[in-house]
Specification:
The protein is 37% helix and 31% strand. It has 462 residues and is α+β, with helices and mostly antiparallel strands. The chain folds into 3 domains: 107 residues, no CATH class; 91 residues, PAS domain (Beta-Lactamase), CATH 3.30.450; 135 residues, PAS domain (Beta-Lactamase), CATH 3.30.450.20. Strands 8, 9, 10, 11, 12, 13 and 14 form a 7-stranded antiparallel β-sheet that branches. It has a 6-stranded mixed β-sheet with strand order 16-15-19-18-17-20. A 5-stranded antiparallel β-sheet has the order 3-7-6-5-4. Helix 3 runs parallel beside helix 4. The radius of gyration is 62 Å and the shape is rod-shaped. The C terminus is likely disordered.
Length: 462
């Protein structure tokens, strides 16, 4: 029967239908087929049946065999090579082997061609690699290096750096444009920061008080204005970096803090210790603010040594005058012209009227006397206020132990520097002993126009 070449292909159904069958094509491998195949390839071709497999073994034993996929190549002579390709039957066993004899020159030419092709491919790869590296250097790496140098220049001198000039319309050029926009924003921010710093330093220099700027995190002085340096003495470098407690000692008893919502603010008095060891009395004001994204404390202080000395002197003068007024032999009484409350009641007044100063200070006539008597006293005070000059009156009072007394009182309106009436001063003298044996109270109105009951009646109070 001979060997057959069989080809199969399924008949595919439409859509999702199963295959409808199988197409089977067969061709007999006979002498006529082999003759035609030799004519087409111009090569000697033979078919070796599976039962003649010993011929193949003899050829393999005689020459070197090289495998090429399922095929193998055997050297059959000095000038020829044989290529053997097995073909399997339907059950997977070898049915026959197709042998093709090739001149060795063709084989060598093929191998030479293969080597030349491999060498050419390697040279082309090297050339392409060099070309790609050159293009990468010129188009990418060199421009990245330029961009890097420009960015470093911007980093070293952000306030005055020029824009990055990078040609092209690729991603690197877009990056350069973005960096230029950032640089412009940095320049603007730096200019605003410099202007703000100049304004701040100008304000600190113009303030006629010492000012410390303190970092609350480290509790160190980071800035001291010229006035603070001048007050403390020395140089700014001797102050900056120190703790504020080295120079300012706050009196805790004088601290006054704000209770409103908002930035914390407090005032206090204290002592400023200069670099030479001298001390000054100062008024200290403290506030917490945000500066350059960090919390700072501003402590300002002014020299109040002269004010303290003046205050102490005023206090001593007031104590002296209070002592003098308290020990005068005549009664001295001062009322507020607006509220008509007693603000001064000396010891002579306590003896003359029999009322302690603690009961009188801050009170009004209506707090002690009936309405008629209090109204009469108020009317007399209003007359003095309207007259705008000192006037003398005769008054009748009754002491709880001494009985009725006759007083001569000088009433003086006291005005401030603007001419506004502030107080009414009353200076009273007991004149009862100057007229012994006389009925001083027979006719109070005729006795110099006195007003009976203007001053408190202790018996009525009781």
């Amino acid at each position: 029967m001979g060997a057959w070449l069989i080809g199969t292909s399924p008949v595919i159904g439409q859509g999702a239908l199963p295959d409808e069958g199988m197409v089977l094509v067969a061709r007999r491998v006979d002498d006529a087929f082999l003759v035609r195949l030799r004519e087409l390839t111009h090569l000697p071709i033979a078919v070796i049946a599976a039962r003649e497999h010993s011929k193949i073994g003899n050829i393999q034993a005689q020459g070197k065999v090289e495998e090429l996929g399922k095929s193998w190549i055997a050297r059959t002579g000095s000038e020829t090579l044989a290529v053997f390709t097995p073909y399997e039957d339907l059950v997977g066993e070898t049915a026959f082997v197709l042998r093709v004899d090739l001149p060795r020159m063709v084989y060598q030419e093929g191998r030479s061609t293969l080597k030349l092709l491999t060498l050419s491919f390697a040279v082309i790869c090297i050339l392409m690699t060099v070309l790609m590296l050159t293009m990468l250097e010129r188009l990418v790496l060199s421009r990245v290096a330029i961009l890097k140098r420009s960015v470093l220049r911007v980093h070293s001198d952000a306030g005055h750096a020029e824009s990055i000039a990078l040609s092209g319309r690729d991603e690197l050029a877009d990056v350069a444009h973005c960096i230029n926009a950032i640089v412009e924003e940095l320049k603007r921010s730096n200019a605003e920061l410099v202007a703000s710093d100049s304004r701040l330093r100008g304000m600190l220099a113009a303030i006629q008080a010492g000012v410390f700027v303190i970092d609350t995190t480290t509790n160190r002085i980071v800035e001291a204005n010229p006035e603070a340096v001048e007050i403390i003495g020395g140089w700014a470098d001797q102050i900056v970096g120190s703790e504020p407690e080295r120079f300012l000692l706050i009196d805790p008893e004088t601290i006054c803090e704000n209770s409103d919502e908002g930035p914390r603010y407090r005032k206090a008095q204290g002592v400023l210790r200069k670099l030479n060891g001298d001390e000054l009395y100062v008024l200290i004001a403290t506030a917490e603010v945000m500066m350059l994204d960090r919390c700072c404390r501003i402590e300002s202080f002014i020299d109040i040594s002269a004010m303290k000395e003046a205050s102490d002197e005023n206090r001593r003068t007031k104590e002296f005058l209070d002592a003098v007024v308290s020990n005068l032999p005549v009664a001295v009484v001062i009322r507020d012209a607006e509220t008509h409350r007693f603000t001064l009641w000396n010891k002579a007044s306590e003896r003359l009227f029999g009322i302690a100063a603690e009961r009188v200070i801050g009170a009004r006539d209506h707090d002690f006397f009936p309405k008629e008597r209090a109204d009469a006293i108020l009317e007399e005070e209003l007359k003095t206020a309207a007259q705008r000059s000192a006037r003398e009156v005769i008054e009748q009072v009754r002491h709880p132990q001494r009985g009725d007394r006759l007083l001569r009182t000088l009433k003086v309106p006291l005005h401030d520097e603007t001419g506004v009436l502030r107080y009414i001063l009353s200076i009273s003298e007991d004149t009862s002993r100057r007229r012994p044996g006389a009925d001083l109270f027979a006719d109070p109105v005729d006795a110099g126009g006195c007003l009976e009951g203007i001053l408190p009646d202790p018996d009525a109070e009781a």
